[in-house]
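#dry-run=false #mode=assembly
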Amino acid sequence: MRKALDTVRGNVLLKHSLIALLAAALVLLVMESVSPFRQGQLAMMAYYAIAAGGLTVLTGLSGQLSLGHGAFMAIGAYTTALLLQEREGALPMIVIILIAALVATVVGAIVGVAAARLHGPYIAGATLALAVAVPGIALHFSSVFGGEQGLNVKVPEVPRLADDALYFLTGTETSTSEWVAYSAWFLLIIVYFLLANLSASRIGRRWRAVRDDEVAASLAGIDLGRDRVVAFVVSAACAGVAGALLALASRLAAPGSFSLVLSLTLLSAVVLGGLGSLLGALLGSGLLALLPNLATSIGSSMGLSDVKAAELSPLVIGLTTMLVILLAPAGVVGSVRQLLAGRGPRATTAAAGTPGAGADTPTVAEPRG
Amino acid sequence: MLDIQGLSVAYGPVKALQDVSFEVPTGTITAVLGANGAGKTTLLRTVSGLMRPQAGRVTLDGTDITRMAPEKMSRLGMAHVPEGRGVITELTVEENLRLGELGRARNGDPVAIERMWEMFPKLGDRRAALAGSLSGGERQMLVIGRSLMATPKVLLLDEPSLGLAPRIVAQIFDLVRTLVDEQGLSVLLVEQNARSALSIADLGVVLNLGRVVTTQEAGALAADEDLRHAYLGF
Amino acid sequence: MQQLITTLLNGLTMGMVYAAFALALVLIWRSTRIVNFAQAPMAMVTTYIAMVLIEGGLNYWLAFILALLSGFVLGAFVERVIVRPVEGKSDINAVILTLGLFIVLHALAALVFGSDYKSFPAPFGVRGITVGGHSLAITPFGIFTIVAVIVVMLLLLLLFQKTDVGLQMRASAFNPEVARLLGVKVSSMLTLGWALAALVGSLSGLLIAGGNLVHPGYMDSVVVFGFVAAVLGGLDSPLGAVVGGLIMGIALSLVSGYLGSGLVSLAALLILVAVLLVKPGGLFSHASERKV
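#status=ok
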């Protein structure tokens, strides 16, 4: 029995490792064949995807809704910026990203301990408050955090070793922004590899159990609170990494980058792809990264000013999010999976009369009497 | 007054009612009896429109009400007192009664709240209290009084005896009988407490696993020892 | 001393606005168990409507009332068309839906009205009243704010406590199934509840905007403060929301006046977490076992 289990676990690990390697190769191929502008977009997609991946674990697996992950990204970004004020003597990039993740993790643990005791709209409200509070702190301590203008980030040079390795593989020199894009994608692969294994592990199964039936899970002896905190910490760490990469890619950490709308669009990315699916989070992030330019250029061609055309992208994202919730709550990936599994979206039970609150209960209630 | 024909209801794959037919004649009490899970509550919820049947027909005084929304039904003279009393605990006693008036048919006689206070002096004493502070018996009085405010033709009563002391149950059943005799109300009474129910009912319908076992005059049913032992537990 | 009085009076004014906003959240929560985070951009949109009308030459008060009515209509529309399908289902979906609406309204407002800061007129002076050479901290517009919120609250109280419609609305919120059996059109009551809530939310939006700068995000922090106020009051209690709003107004005004305005949101977060951890049922709950 135990042996069989070990083999299965080994297989999952093997499967994930193979996917990771393939993905790394794909990244090399794609990155070398696109323009620097697209590389920037790809870097953006990668850091959105890292944050959305963490949020997928939190919301999709552990069932906690966070509207405040932009705040953890801000923490990661400001940590990075503070460590990269001077190019001379700066720590290696990977160390800085890890420190950023660590700081976000610590804050995430504090918030997670509080959030673990809350439900539904209360977590949503608390994390919403967090999303609004963190940029405010940056503004308040403007001597440290640079106020409205934010902090410039001096991106370190490409490490010699990495430069050489990439030259060996691709035959071209690597610029710093290209290096950031590479780092973002390789980190994305590592993060998703870890998250996928976490999701397949025992704690992943417990998360799903708690999400699906809290009472049954707690009767089965699952420590709900601790698992919830772990999920929160994991997702905060991801957001910290994402924030660090955002600061490196945009060479800036400023409060304007972490508006409430950022937190909400992150959630949209998770919802669009399908709650609980890493692939979905990746696709949703791709949309977040690529849509703005597309929408802006379409808007401009329709005669809108650039400022206004830039608003088309959140409009599309918001509308799509609402439509997905209303029409295909399983998200894109989830719906495709359902179709492949040969069953359409769950049929809604026909409730008698008007569908006001509580009117749905009759068909769900236990037969009695 | 109330005619139920071939009613079938399912919760997903679980069939709660199968081909149930019987009639509630005007000015009588028809008691639906049976064990827990026989489908009694489902029957009432379907009649009053809270659930939709897969098949069958319900008519009230000649009007087809099978798939009518519950909020419309009360204006046709249907009053449903759900299981567990159905008082709105966050509202006062008087507010609960005033709500009852909403369902009154446009041409119905207005029932003054004062008459309710005469009928239920205990409620009158506590008219400004939250309904949640009433005792079980008082709550049952309140919901019956509330449904009377709508001057209904048919009263659906779901387990009015549940959790009440025998003395209170007797009071309530007396009240129901009086209403039927004096005002010509028709009552569909669902009860697990078959002995008490049959003591005031005119007709008895025995339900088992969603099917009608028998429909008989209440007296005859109470006298049928085999049936009583098999389905009614007394 | 002068500064303290100024801060407290300012807090009182803002507290009334937060109270109105919290009341809007509570009205919706009570009837549909949904926290309408989109209340903030909904109020923002109606403020822009008022601004466009005023800029078009309409009388201030007429524009004010038309904006409130547009809030009413918007609330009814949102409940009927957008929120209805998820009512009574998973609360995560409902929250995400209101957030989607949040983003959409933001973007729409920026597209239609522009995303730059615009100043919104006030019908009264926004300078302190001077009495005998002393300048008081309270402004005529501040007094109007307080009076307007109190009047609207009294009207709501009358509606809920003294009218049949109000009784039906309360019955629908407390026990929809029994209400339906009694002939209450519960679904219409829910729509009406959302519409009224959106009207109250719009009022708070207009009051904050008066004499200030508006932009598509100007209500974003108010939804946080209003939510915290509602939670302080227990999320279920209209009276609690009003008291919670006043507490928040004064507390945040003190933080802003003595510590700095950048810390206001942080203070709101800390108050929220403290309340949820210590008294999850709100300040006035006797029992704290309610699951939050």
